[in-house]
Amino acid sequence: MSFDDFKALIGLTFRNPEAAATALIGTGLPVSARWMALLLAVSVSALLAWLSSQLFPLPQGEAGNVPVLAVTSQPMVLAGMQLVAVLLAAGLMAGVGRMFGGHGRFEDALLLTVWIEVVLLLVQAVQIAATLILPGVAGILGVLAIALFFWLTVQFTKALHGFTSGIKVFLGLVGTAFAVGFVLSLLAASFGLFPEVPQ
Description:
Transmembrane segments: 35-56, 76-97, 109-130, 136-157, 169-194
Shape: globular
Pfam families: Yip1 (PF04893)
Protein name: YIP1 family protein
Number of strands: 0
Structural class: mainly alpha
InterPro entries: Yip1_dom (IPR006977)
Membrane topology: Multi-pass membrane protein
């Protein structure tokens, strides 16, 4: 993929994400290339998060109270966590969709979730630059990034499985997120991963 193709696909992703998803699947990228793209995307994302933590450090001791923020100072750990998160998202996108009559494959779901990560990387880079120039805009971009993630996930899931109702896909996405969050919280509690609340 040339740089011009990359720019065109980025533009198409914002204008017509379903068409962008179809185009991505139609490229027929080998599975090995999809895994390489995943590793590259999570590595760059972790480095950007680390850079942000270095440019805008929290007061000493405050980051330790928020585990997610504390991890940003450890890019290798963060990259591993993001790798697992993307794989989980791809597995759910493919598996849950097939449960509801879809026909998407995990390999294509992996490609689409990696592409969402790439788009969010661009937003992350703009957010860091905006924080340096216009700090107030960075918070707005953070909210927009969350909305963009849900919007692209819904549209890509529709394209992957041939669904037609964005509302039903969105409800399925929210329901799946709650169910996975509940299961993960139970697992975390059973392994004692939650910190004890001081008396």
